[in-house]
Structure formats: structure tokens, C-alpha cells
């Protein structure tokens, strides 16, 4: 059986299957089975969800971080998605939004999150804002992964 091993720094938090864990010293974790997790340093804060795509990203992120509230987050996605599709005329953005919605339909939340993240620089260009990707990375380190086989 292959495993997924991650290293956490002292004081770092990790969200695992909806639970928040904090480590008191440098720690190595090995996941031996399918798990949903996000590293604290890769989580978008609500205050950073300042544009439509970032807001949708934040909603999908909630599905991973808070499985108990995933139905409410999904309902928010279902309300927001059609408005974004009606708002954006960019074929690339619209295609990316469709990809994310299809991934969610197939219960591939982590991949939907990654797809939405890829749209943020496009949205920034459309809105005429410099991309914050380099200064404030919001990449997701992991998602639902069957040990080292890649995201599910």
C-alpha cells in the first residue's frame, strides 16, 4: 500500500475530513487511506474572496473544510454559478466554470477547487487587476487523495 506523507511545521494547522488539527512541533503525517485535507497555508480566507471567482472558490473550499456544511455550501454554489455564467463573456472563464461544476457533479471537489484557482488570473486580467497569485498563493496542497495515486 502506498502512502501520502506530509510535513507540518510547529503551530501549523491542517483540515482533515472537516476536523482542524494543530501540531505543537514539526511533525510528519502519513495518510494510509483516502482522506480530504487542506493545509492552513493554502486556505483562502473569507477576506480574500473579493471577486466573483474567488467567492466561488471560497464556497467550494468550504465543501472540503466543513463536510457537515457541504450541503449549504453546495446550495450557495448552485445559486452563484448561473450568475457567474451570465456575467462572464470570456470563453475561457465560462469553460472553466463549466468544468468546475461538472467536477462537483462527479464529487471531485478538490479538482473543482484547482480548476477554479486556475481562473483567478484570467478574472484578474478581465477586471484589470494585477494577479495576486505570486504574492498571495492560494494553491491547494492536497485534496481527496488515495495515497500518492493523485487526487481522486
Automatic annotation (TrEMBL):
The record's annotation in InterPro entries points to:
Flagellum_FlbT
UniProt KW Magnesium keyword: no
Record's Pfam families?
FlbT (PF07378)
Q: Write out the GO MF terms.
A: mRNA 5'-UTR binding
A GO BP annotation: negative regulation of bacterial-type flagellum assembly
Q: Which domain of life is it from?
A: Bacteria
What keywords appear on the UniProt entry?
Answer: Bacterial flagellum biogenesis, Cell projection, Cilium, Flagellum, Repressor, RNA-binding
Q: What does this protein do?
A: Has a post-transcriptional repressor function in flagellum biogenesis. Associates with the 5'-UTR of fljK mRNA and promotes its degradation.
UniProt family annotation:
Belongs to the FlbT family.
Give the protein name, as stated in the record.
Answer: Probable flagellum biosynthesis repressor protein FlbT
**Organism whose genome encodes this protein:** Aureimonas jatrophae
Gene name tied to this protein: flbT
